[in-house]
Known about the structure:
The chain is α/β, with parallel strands linked by helices and about 550 residues long. It folds into four domains: about 5-145, Hexapeptide repeat proteins (UDP N-Acetylglucosamine Acyltransferase, domain 1), CATH 2.160.10; about 155-320, Aminopeptidase (3-Layer(aba) Sandwich); about 330-475, 3-Layer(aba) Sandwich (Aminopeptidase), CATH 3.40.630.30; about 505-545. The protein contains 14 helices and 28 strands. The strands form four sheets. Strands 15, 16, 17, 18, 19, 20, 21, 22, 23, 24, 25, 26, 27 and 28 form a 14-stranded mixed sheet that branches. The chain has a six-stranded mixed sheet with strand order 2-5-8-11-13-14, with no helix packed on it. A hairpin with a 2-residue loop joins β24 (about 415-425) and β25 (about 425-435). The longest helix has 23 residues, at about 505-530.
Amino acid sequence: MNALTIYRFGRWCYLRGIPVIPQLAYQAIYLLFNAAIPMSADIGEGADLAYGGMGIVLHERCKIGRFVSIGHQVTIGGRSRRWGVPVIEDRAVIGAGAKLLGPISVGAEAVIAANAVVLHDVPPRTVVAGMPARVVRTDIDIREYSCLQPPEEAEALSHRTTDNLLVTRIEEPGRVPHVTEEWRELLADSAADGLFLTPDWLMTWWEHFGADKTLALITLRRHSRLLGLAPMFVRTRRFGNLVPHSSMECLGTGVVGSDYLDVIIRRGHEAEVSRGLAEYLQRQDAVVTLSHIRRDRPAAETFIAELEQAGWTVRRRTIETCPYIPLKGHTWDSYLASLGPSHRYNFQRRLKNLHKLGTLVFETVEKEDQRRDAMAALLALHNRRWDERGGSEAMQSLEELAFHDAFSRTALERGWLRLSLLRLNGRPIGALYGLRRGRTVYFYQSGFDPAFRQQSAGLVTMGLAIRQALAEGVEEYDLLHGTESYKFLWTDRTRELAKIELFPPSIGGLLCLGALRGEAAAKRLARRALPEWMLQRLIALRRKAA
């Protein structure tokens, strides 16, 4: 409940000539928010009053346009011996404590600085400040000052929920930098906090893989405070290779291997944000796919339940397993002692044998020139390791390579990069690409020289990376998705990742669901009827076509 909600109800009664209630609404606003907002004042849709409207004073004849943002303690009123009162045009931003007095006009997308006293007209797209206010900037981009969508986009991209949250959808990548710091702060105050939901990872992904997609960064706010964010994109997907339909999916989905994707919800606001997101998605008629989310504690579960209650069909399945190593409370020695005696002995013996061959150095990248050389060494060792097995599918395409070059540069700048080389007499024989954020290190990729297979160069590189993480005070070493046998030499702990598909109760949604079920039935029939070599050939052809 805020002053604007009470005003909307009172205004509705005022316009219909219903007595008593408008006056009661005015008094309620005054008592609850110490604000004077007459029901005769005209406030356009999408307006936002900071802190619920605390301390705001409006003249009974003032006119406020659509998607205007008003700070607390603002006065919009008349002047002595002047009949006219301010008119505020669409998308203006009025800072806290500002005073707008007399027959003035504030142009569309203008900004009034905090505590400014405005006595004269303000041209559109300008910033005014001071007492009395004067123009300090012209020809501004309002997106630098407000996260609300412009009026012409409001119906398509904005929604006010039953809990009075403002839901907006950002489709232009150029607007994302204006919410980046809020995104980071929200993520830190959520249960979904992790590397793969940072704007750094996801927007780097978008830059390299978003060409045939439409960005759909969905934000949920109350009083301008960001409470929830769903980082998504929209594309046309052919379900079952038959039915084309709009598909909304998580940013980061696909080839680069983003784990623990989810929606981001501020702690303590899970219920209202989930309801608001469910309300918004019901207006879209898109199939929603959430991939690589944690099966044990998805933040999205509450809004999924809301959609299920609204008649949506939900399909869940486990798609990946992530081994991880709990390190909290361990030293390197105590962690080694927790492993099986054969593996512990094997690691120590292999490390000792490598030392006997010459000068063994485990080094981690600290500078940009080191990063470039280490990434090249990692790719060479990774490909050399897999060449004898028919080649690797990871980090092969030009888009993937460009993505990792860009993100590893960002990670180095932010102190996240844990890109390490194991050198023997100056020659790289092992490489490991890890990323640290908070108390977790994520193991992403590795490689080793097959000439040192007998010396277990890959095993030693992994062990030294874990030892380094413990020395840094890391509490978890996450090996990410994949059940390769070498990962289980270091841990027996796992968590599962799920894929959740939500189909709207519309004709389009039901057709998509039916097409997928038909495709699954055809696959089962093919497995029973076709020889194995033919199945593998068909699978390879389909992957190549995709």
